[in-house]
Amino acid sequence: MAIQKLYAGAKLREIRTRLQLTQKEFAARMGVSLPYLNQMENNNRPVSTAVVLALAREFGTDVTELSTGDSERMVSDLREALADPVFPTPTPSAADLRLVASNAPGVARALLALHHAYRQTHERLASLDEALGHEDRSLRASPWEEVRDFFHYCDNYIDAVDHAAENFARGPDSIDARAEKALERRGINLQFSDDPLLRRYDPQRRTLTLSTKASASSRRFQLLHQLALLTQNELLDATLDLARFQSDEARAIAKIGLANYFAGAAMLPYREFLAAARETRHDLEMLADQFGASIEQVAHRLSTLQRPGAKGVPFFFVRVDQAGTITKRHSATRLQFARYGGSCPLWNVHQAFEVPGRFLRQLAETPDGVRYFCLSRDVSKLGGSFRAPVRRYAISLGCEIRHAGALTYADDMDLSNPQAFEPIGISCRICARPNCHQRSVPPLEHSLTIDFDRRGILPYRIDAPPQ
């Protein structure tokens, strides 16, 4: 396999700026000439092995930063946006998109924001009532989407909040006992009721009420969520200040997300959980039992183990509802989920609803030739009474096939047989597979040939995009 050259100019500039060094000082510390550094920072030259070693030796840099982060996410988002028919020219090549994402990330983000505003305008005009009812609203991402993108481009790992949660969880007491003592020190009384609300905090009476109808893991999570809001408010606000959200509503949603992050990280403290994950070979049920968490909480936490210098297996994690809508998504792998539309129907996460309570395994290959191991399961959330609605989701956790040996679930699977891998895509609108029997719409960046006298799997033939 050919070795891919590493172009990471933007990342080099980011590291140098973080260290508050001039180009001359940075070049001297790494033992390279100033012109050579300048060429690397402008992606005219790849980052050499000697520079990678110097970064680790001189600055203690986690060299995996050079090849991870925003770049792959941005390439995927750009490819999907530029496949829109509003762009008349052929979609730029993957190499061009990587160059833009790595060398001009600010321009790439601006283009994505502009395309998103266009889509919102187009969708509003498609419904006259909606357009008239919201004509005074500014054209910007919805608060929910803005927060989703914030976590997406943070690699779903918030270092300061993660360390704070880990420090809180450290000690001989159980996490429940530590949380209850923290409430007592603040004069807050913890009580339980059969209230349908999962959590209710009364600041006047200094009372936190948790629902007995929720599972033990949900109650523990809600307890730690409220504790984060009470004890980590300055940290959460400082993180939100750096994010610079466009609206107070987005900031409020993000604060809930950060409190959720603290709760999950306190239940499953980073280094202890990482060690247990490796020891159990990522057995979700064993980890859930050991830490008193749910299967979903464990799977989600596994996808956040991206601390520099102590990274776990790079997983993707996704949760879908019964309509196929993605309600949670994160990927530390090259697999990036579509921002618009549903996910690929050939992915086994959709089959999980048919076999509740069982893990489904799948070997899958995306159109770019990357192979993955996928693990999916349904997660039902009972309402606590006969007439209460049951919320049903399916979750999927997966990694590139080179990491599958670290998972107990992959032990008896034929990972070396190319025929064992099922072809999946990201979404129909950007997938070019010509003979997919589950295709719902044609790919946007390809032209179609209609033959009235012949019919195959599809009522049209997908042609190659124009060069």
Helix content: 40-55%
Tell me the strand order in the biggest sheet.
5-4-8-7-6-9
Given helix and strand content, the structural type is: alpha+beta
Major sheet summary line: 6 strands, mixed
The tally of helices reads: 17
- Can you count the beta strands? 11
Radius of gyration over all CA atoms, rounded: 24 Å
Assign an overall shape: globular
First-last Cα distance: 27 Å
SSE ordering = HHHHHHHHHHHEEEHHHHHHEEEEEEEE
Low-confidence stretches: 127-138
| Beta-strand content | 5-15%
Explain what the structure shows.
With 467 residues, this protein is of the alpha+beta class. It contains 17 helices and 11 strands. A 6-stranded mixed β-sheet has the order 5-4-8-7-6-9, with helices on one face. It has a 3-stranded mixed β-sheet with strand order 1-3-2, with helices on one face. It has a two-stranded antiparallel sheet with strand order 10-11. Helix 5 (70-82) crosses helix 7, helix 12 crosses helix 14 and helix 16 packs across helix 17 (295-302). 32% of the residues are buried. The model is unreliable at 127-138 (pLDDT under 50).
